[in-house]
């Protein structure tokens, strides 16, 4: 079998999406608490006030994770739960929640993989300029110190930022996500730069303070281009497309990953943003570019491309499977071959797929089961491609399903169900979907089941 013997089989979620308890035990407000109060921002008026109620049901959830056999659960910490104003006084009750959660996971044989920031930014700091404020990287580092002090005797796996591409673009450019801003490029680039500095400083904080040897990465979107055929020209076209910034958008790999891993912004982006680039002080890149232990990538679908006759690149519409998920996302399993392969070639770090999965039309059938064959097939096809990448020499250390349980899907609220575990939002009751039982078999066979059946 080609999945390495200590392969990390996991599932992921994030604080605002599953916890609820939005106003409990001294938690401060996050920008998402505020966003959800604005009419029309979230489908059907959904909020994270209660959500999957993980804040109260975390013990049961940790037990279910153990039952599925997860080796890892990727969680995030709510910064304003731990430090209500973002800086200053620590809310011991909030911090204690993560302390108990980590213990509950470990008791069930599940390694906690902790993300520092999965978008629920402290509202108080937003009012001081948020990511635009030059002090924001230091605020973040201070928060990271509190978490490392408390949890690093038991937590080894850390991720700094989740999908900076999305919180910059959707949060600060289109306003679809919190904090709902529509900034110009200089401000967007400043916010992005400060978030990169926060990443670098956090890596330093972890390395300096961790009590057990840390394994550190980030979890950006793995924006993936898939060659239409296996011809050398198409592969070259896809590689080029995956690592270029053809237009002024933040949904790309290099603007974030090149600074983190290679210590510089990509030339094509610098040219494109031109005079809108903020001044970057000497030394910032040194802070941003810290040694990392893995390259986390959230990959759901990709863009299929081919070489055009004139030496250019042509985008191919369509997908490997001619159906859309309920997110209207195309299904392109080959992303889990080409994404890891191209990222590994460029950045040289072992890959962890920190998110992959699909939203489906799930409900509890009259016999009490949640049948989600589409999700099983989606994951199976993606794992086969991932295995093919491993066979071809790509170092892949782990794979995490998004998500362990149904949860609040940002602007789409409760319209989308991504979970392996079904959540009844009226009662909080959990039901393992067919995919959870299937994934249990995959884990128990170290991937064999997904490849051979
Ligand atoms: C990713 C996010 C995650 C979830 C999935 C569906 O962009 O990181 O929180 O919403 O998409």
Compact summary:
With 453 residues, this protein is of the alpha/beta class.
For the structure shown, list the relevant keywords.
453 residues; alpha/beta; three-stranded mixed beta sheet; 15 strands; globular; binds beta-D-fucopyranose
Write the layout of secondary structure elements.
Layout: E1 8-12, H1 15-18, H2 31-36, H3 54-68, E2 72-76, H4 79-82, H5 92-107, E3 111-117, H6 123-126, H7 136-151, E4 157-162, H8 164-173, H9 185-209, E5 215-219, E6 224-227, H10 232-242, H11 254-262, H12 267-273, H13 284-288, E7 295-298, E8 302-307, E9 313-316, E10 321-324, E11 330-331, H14 335-347, E12 351-356, H15 373-391, E13 396-402, E14 421-423, E15 430-432, H16 434-444, H17 448-452
Parallel strand pairs: 1-2, 1-13, 2-3, 3-4, 4-5, 6-8, 7-12, 12-13
Antiparallel strand pairs: 8-9, 10-11, 14-15
The chain binds beta-D-fucopyranose.
Task: Describe the protein.
With 453 residues, the protein is α/β, with parallel strands linked by helices. The protein has 17 helices and 15 strands. The chain has an eight-stranded parallel sheet. The protein has a three-stranded mixed sheet with strand order 6-8-9. The mean pLDDT is 98. The site of beta-D-fucopyranose has 11 residues, from loops. Beta-D-fucopyranose binds next to loops.
């Amino acid at each position: 079998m080609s999945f390495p013997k200590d392969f990390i089989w996991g599932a992921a979620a994030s604080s605002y999406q599953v916890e609820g308890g939005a106003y409990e035990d001294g938690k401060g407000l996050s920008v998402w608490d505020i966003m959800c109060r604005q009419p029309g921002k979230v489908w059907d008026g959904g909020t994270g006030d209660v959500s999957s109620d993980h804040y109260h049901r975390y013990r049961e959830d940790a037990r279910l994770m153990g039952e599925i056999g997860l080796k890892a659960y990727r969680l995030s910490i709510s910064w304003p739960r731990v430090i209500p104003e973002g800086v200053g006084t620590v809310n011991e009750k909030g911090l204690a929640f993560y302390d108990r959660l980590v213990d509950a996971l470990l008791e069930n044989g599940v390694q906690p993989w902790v993300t520092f920031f999965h978008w629920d930014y402290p509202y108080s700091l937003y009012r001081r300029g948020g990511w635009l404020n030059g002090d924001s990287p230091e605020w973040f580092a201070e928060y990271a110190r509190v978490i490392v002090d408390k949890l690093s005797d038991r937590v080894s796996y850390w991720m700094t930022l989740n999908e900076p591409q999305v919180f910059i673009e959707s949060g600060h450019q289109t306003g679809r996500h919190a904090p709902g801003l529509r900034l110009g490029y200089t401000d967007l680039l400043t916010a992005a730069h400060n978030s990169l500095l926060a990443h670098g400083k956090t890596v330093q904080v972890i390395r300096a303070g961790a009590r057990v040897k840390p394994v550190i990465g980030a979890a950006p979107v793995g924006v993936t281009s898939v060659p239409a055929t296996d011809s050398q020209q198409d592969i070259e076209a896809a590689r080029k497309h995956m690592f270029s910034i053809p237009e002024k958008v933040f949904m790309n790999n290099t603007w974030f990953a090149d600074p983190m891993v290679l210590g510089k912004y990509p030339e094509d982006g610098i040219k494109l943003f031109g005079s809108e680039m903020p001044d970057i002080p000497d030394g910032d890149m040194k802070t941003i570019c810290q040694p990392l232990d893995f390259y986390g990538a959230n990959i759901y679908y990709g863009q299929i491309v081919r070489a055009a006759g004139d030496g250019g690149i042509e985008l191919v519409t369509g997908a490997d499977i001619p159906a859309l998920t309920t997110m209207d996302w195309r299904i392109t399993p080959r992303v889990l071959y080409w994404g890891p392969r191209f990222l590994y070639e460029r950045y040289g770090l072992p890959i962890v797929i920190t998110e992959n999965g699909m939203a489906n039309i799930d409900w509890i059938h009259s016999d009490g089961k949640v049948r989600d064959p589409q999700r099983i097939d989606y994951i199976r096809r993606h794992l086969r491609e991932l295995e093919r990448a491993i066979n071809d020499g790509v170092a892949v250390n782990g794979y995490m399903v998004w998500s362990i349980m149904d949860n609040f899907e940002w602007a789409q609220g409760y319209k989308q169900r991504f979970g392996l575990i079904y959540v009844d939002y009226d009662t909080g009751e959990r039901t393992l979907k067919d995919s959870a039982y299937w994934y249990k078999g995959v884990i128990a066979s170290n991937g064999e089941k997904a490849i051979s059946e």
